[in-house]
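From the thread on structure requests for the teaching lab: each student submitted one protein with a one-line request. Submission from student K.M.:

"Model TadE-like domain-containing protein from Homoserinibacter gongjuensis, tokens only."
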Amino acid sequence: MRSRSPADDDGSVAAEFAVALPAVALVLALCVGAVGVGSQQLRLQDAAADAARGLGRGESTSAVQGRVSRAAPGSVLADWSSGELVCARLTVPARGPAAVAGLRLAAESCALDGGR
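Reply posted by the TA:
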């Protein structure tokens, strides 16, 4: 039986690296995409809270929609009243790699209805 020498393993590290590199790149891309979606969701939630407060102060829906469009471009505003509260719901398609999957983000917030 022939004994193995260190020279028998030449190239195995390069082959393992070539196999692992695409998987590492994919995981890294997914992580970056998730951070982007999280950031977009946070901005959308802030815009929904601002919209609810504006509607609660008695601002017109068109004025609130204009402000929301600057904060969260492409978002759609829906508003309704529930007792002493006025609520706003924003929806928007996700940007970046999540857009390929058809992901839609939504955020809603309510404020006291003091202006209606």
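TA comment: The chain has one domain: 13-112. Helices lie at 12-56, 61-71, 97-100.
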